[in-house]
Amino acid sequence: MPTISISRSDLERLIGRRATDKDLDIWLPLVKSEVKDTDPVTGELRIELQDSNRPDLWCVEGIARQIRCKLKGAGNAYPYLKGGKNRRDHIAVGKGLEKLRPFVAVCKARSCAVTDQCLTQLIQTQEKLADIFGRKRQTVSIGLYRLPAITFPVTYALVDPEGVSFRPLGSDNSLNLREILQTHPKGIEYRGILEDHQRFPLLRDAKGEVLSFPPIINSRDIGEVRVGETELFVEVTGTDLRMVMLALNIFAANLHDRGAKIEPMDVVYPYTTALGRTIRTPQHFTKPRKISRHEIVQALGADLSMKEIRSSLSSYGYSLMGAGETLTATLPAYRNDLMHPVDIVEDVAISRGYGSFSPIMPSAFTVGSLTRIEQLSDKVRELMVGFGFQEIVSNILGSKEDLVEKMRLSPDLPSGRTVEIENMMSQSAEVLRQWMLPSLLRVEAASSRSFYPHLLFEAGEVAILDRSAETGSQTELRLGALSAHPGASFSEIHSYLELLCLYLNKAYLLRPTTHPSFIEGRVAQILMGDLAIGLIGEIHPEVLERWQIHMPSSMFEAALNPLI
């Protein structure tokens, strides 16, 4: 979870009143955080945030904003979000960026006194948003610039990496974009984002002066913000439009809370986006959601009146409309974490304070026990260990390369379809596994120096796509077993399956089938009655080659639920 450093005096100035230790104990639960450490000499506070869904809180301005809303009972007003007919400066986006880093959001901030504390917080927020929210700058990166040095309009376009040079931050020498990736510390750290592309993105003003090489580094001449500045230019680039817009909305709100006057700008695209070809930024783009009093009362178990619910949500920053027993709630522009009505319910509870709810003692006495499926899986584990197999425990998350490509599967076929993670942090954990064999092969591939034979098994969960399910998928508990040694064969692995079913007193049948991951003619479905519960067979040599496994291998995999 994010941990940030803030100054107590800066927090007090933004809240508008003194903040004692007792006050912090009361207020910090509003932002799901706690003080981890304090420095009584400097007044520095180390705050640990317990919620990764609220990037607006990863800064002193966001924490102070939420506390301020609670103290005055209503959200803050941000006049720059209101659409106007005044002519605005713009940034022109070049063609071709839709395939690399398609989106940008910008604004100006005037009359902002950049102090030591302000600059420290701006840099910290910039780094937290880019590294955590922006996944190491892959999805979102942020730049701050000295506004008076920029001549508008600004251009965001692709350029030849060896045809443009400028002085990057932290360097006295002018370098071209290719040299920055090869020699500059930030270029070396983040070059993986761009190095496979022939042309790189660049921000330049109307005079051709370079602002930055996103998402790598700012220009030292324009992008080095110093204490004493009063006018700033803020830009956010990235691959996800709503994440880019949200990051700018957060920065605009932070600067506004510090007294800046925010001036929106237009972003003009040569291609169509979800919000059009010309987008005014910052912009309030979050959609309202309806929720009834009944849903809130049922979830919290407290008979709250509509007046109490309205008060709780208003003092947490929501805009509310509607009458009667149903509300239409809209998040402030700096938030976009509302995915389900239960998120509104949670905010009601946080705003009221969990201590305001009366605890209820259990009215029934129950004795806990293992479910039948867990009892079965424990018995299966015990039997497999008795057969000489070694148990492994692997992650349910994996990569498409391991689960599909290395297994000779096609994503167009049911066997190759996976449940994908929408906002994945790494390609090694981008999908949920749909079967056990790749997990076993991953361990086998790393075990080539161990004495053979290798007998491995795992009893674990897999996720199967199911459009009829509420979540779009079903979770199954499965057993997978692998044998790898020079004499591994269908007959051998079949003998272990036969022995397992004998001890479980379960009858089964084998029906020949075909499967891309197995040798043709040496693979079968495992049937229990008319229900296919798994596969058994010898693994295809091409699959073994892709995993760099040099021993013949055979395996079986079966769902455990039908065995109950």
Write up what this structure looks like:
Helix 8 packs across helix 10 (341-352). With 564 residues, the chain is α+β, with helices and mostly antiparallel strands. The chain has 15 helices and 28 strands. Strands 4, 5, 6, 7, 10, 11, 12, 13, 14 and 15 form a ten-stranded mixed beta sheet that branches. The model has no long low-confidence stretch (mean pLDDT 93). The chain starts with a strand and ends in a 5-residue tail after the last strand.
The CA-CA distance between the termini, in Å, is 40 Å
Number of helices: 15
Helix content: 25-40%
Low-confidence stretches: none
Radius of gyration: 29 Å
Strand count:
28
Name the beta content range. 25-35%
Task: Give the topology.
Elements: E1 3-7, H1 8-15, H2 21-27, E2 33-39, E3 44-49, H3 60-72, E4 90-93, E5 103-110, H4 116-133, E6 140-146, E7 154-159, E8 165-166, E9 175-176, H5 177-183, H6 185-190, E10 200-204, E11 210-213, E12 217-218, E13 232-238, H7 241-257, E14 261-268, E15 278-281, E16 289-292, H8 293-300, H9 306-314, E17 319-321, E18 326-330, H10 341-352, H11 372-386, E19 390-391, E20 397-398, H12 400-405, E21 419-420, E22 431-432, H13 437-445, E23 454-465, E24 473-484, H14 490-504, E25 509-512, E26 518-528, E27 531-539, H15 541-546, E28 553-559
Parallel strand pairs: 4-7, 4-14, 19-23
Antiparallel strand pairs: 1-3, 2-3, 5-13, 5-14, 6-13, 7-10, 8-9, 10-11, 11-12, 14-15, 16-18, 17-18, 20-22, 21-22, 23-24, 24-28, 25-26, 26-27, 27-28
